[in-house]
């Protein structure tokens, strides 16, 4: 007989994750502008029609069902819904409502992200995150989104990876809006916390009750030189700031970031206290941190410490860090959802092993009492990977980017076996 730790309980959800800009196609927003400005790694890459999920959504729901998924994460594209400031596009809202209803009819629980990195182009010109007006702007958008969610029992995510957006967009200037300023980063962070709380009020007003959280990119950290006191100090500072500051603010109402010489803040936002029902974790890898004697004083590196080989995108395959990450969020006393986890594996052979090793950590965390309730694989389909463009392939299904044909990778069988048998099977034994 199996011990409970070896199995996923029947209420545990297996699902898949996507985001609007990366899969839908035909979206005009700040990222499209960024691409035209030649700012991607491959300056000529364009997202364009993406993988045409906008028209193929029913086929994609069926593909999700075929791997045993019972939840499907999408994001709503703000630029479709509010193409000009204050003008809402009823047809776009209607189209999203129809998609969500069909998703539900396919037996997939909607997991709906309001904001997944992208903005309507007017946003940065008129109410960027570092200005207080960003909060009522997001509130008004969230109010429209709330109306789409009635009767769906959706899991709702206000922001996807806010720290990634802030680090890339406000501190490093690498993604829109291309600002590189520590003080503005902290103001933007505060306004995003306030915006989450404002969105929550709108969701509650419309729906009565809501299951709301954020999706937080959480990295395992290690010192690049184990013996170097400054590398070690960086690790001690980075995890609270990068992994926990946002979660902490939404649990306690206290926002604290302490990265001396980079960005720091300490502010109380009472309306943010107790403002999530679940903790959303996006886990991919571990970063080694190295002190460098010039701003921003910190260098991120991915290292192949165990000879497993970096993933194709160049990240360390480090399932061990997943367990620690899950232990670390136990402190919030909320159910946990893995809102993303996955591997860029262009040949498709490593993915079943990646799934196996990472799901084993989920079971280990559950056995230690971490209430992990669901796992959403990133991603159902190969798609457009932000600055990296069309190179990476995270999909359970391979997509031919010319014909848009979707074909199962070996991980489809593996995912289906685990999701339906609700226990870990060893890859290669199917
Ligand atoms: C996460 C993003 C997601 C996808 C994966 C690979 O950081 O949330 O959109 O790009 O990485």
TrEMBL record:
Gene3D superfamilies: Glycosidases (3.20.20.80). Pfam families: Glyco_hydro_1. PROSITE patterns: GLYCOSYL_HYDROL_F1_2. Coiled coil: none annotated. The keyword Hydrolase applies. One of its GO terms (molecular function) is beta-glucosidase activity. Keywords: Glycosidase, Hydrolase. Signal peptide: none annotated. GO terms for biological process: carbohydrate metabolic process. PANTHER family: GALACTOLIPID GALACTOSYLTRANSFERASE SFR2, CHLOROPLASTIC, GLYCOSYL HYDROLASE. Belongs to the glycosyl hydrolase 1 family. This is Beta-glucosidase A. It comes from Myxococcus stipitatus (strain DSM 14675 / JCM 12634 / Mx s8).
């Amino acid at each position: 007989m199996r011990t409970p730790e070896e199995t996923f309980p029947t209420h545990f959800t297996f699902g898949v994750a996507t985001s609007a800009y990366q899969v839908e196609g035909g979206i005009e927003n700040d990222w499209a502008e960024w691409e035209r400005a030649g700012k991607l790694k491959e300056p000529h890459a364009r997202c364009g029609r993406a993988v045409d999920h906008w028209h193929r959504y029913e086929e994609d729901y069926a593909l999700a069902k075929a791997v045993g998924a019972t939840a499907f994460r999408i994001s709503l594209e703000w630029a479709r819904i509010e193409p000009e400031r204050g003008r809402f596009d009823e047809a776009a809202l209607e189209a999203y409502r129809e998609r969500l209803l069909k998703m539900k009819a396919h037996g997939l629980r909607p997991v709906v992200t309001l904001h997944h990195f992208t903005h309507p182009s007017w946003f940065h010109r008129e109410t960027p995150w570092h200005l207080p007006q960003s909060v009522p702007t997001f509130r008004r958008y969230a109010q429209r989104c709330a109306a789409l969610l009635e009767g769906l029992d959706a899991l709702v995510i206000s922001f996807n990876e806010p720290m990634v957006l802030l680090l890339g967009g406000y501190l490093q200037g690498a993604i829109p809006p291309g600002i590189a300023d520590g003080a503005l980063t902290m103001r933007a962070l505060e306004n995003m916390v306030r915006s989450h709380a404002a969105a929550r009020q709108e969701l509650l007003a419309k729906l009565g009750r809501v299951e709301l959280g954020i999706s937080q990119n959480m990295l395992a950290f290690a010192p690049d030189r184990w013996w170097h006191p400054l590398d070690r100090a960086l690790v001690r500072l980075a995890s609270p700031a990068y992994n926990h500051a946002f979660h902490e603010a939404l649990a306690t109402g206290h926002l604290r970031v302490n990265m001396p010489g980079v960005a720091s803040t300490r502010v109380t936002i009472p309306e943010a206290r107790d403002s999530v029902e679940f903790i959303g974790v996006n886990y991919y890898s571990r970063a080694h941190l190295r002190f460098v004697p010039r701003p921003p004083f910190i260098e991120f590196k991915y290292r192949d410490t165990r000879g497993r080989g970096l993933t194709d995108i160049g990240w360390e395959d480090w399932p061990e860090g997943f367990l620690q990450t899950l232990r670390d969020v136990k402190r919030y006393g909320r159910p946990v959802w893995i809102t993303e986890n996955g591997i860029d594996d262009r040949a498709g052979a490593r993915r079943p092993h990646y799934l196996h090793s990472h799901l084993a950590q989920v079971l280990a965390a559950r056995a230690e009492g971490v209430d992990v309730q669901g796992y959403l694989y990133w991603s159902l389909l190969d798609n457009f990977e932000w600055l990296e463009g069309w190179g990476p392939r995270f999909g359970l299904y391979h997509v031919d980017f010319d014909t848009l044909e979707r074909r199962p990778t070996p991980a489809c069988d593996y995912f289906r076996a685990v999701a339906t048998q609700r226990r870990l099977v060893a890859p290669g034994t199917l």
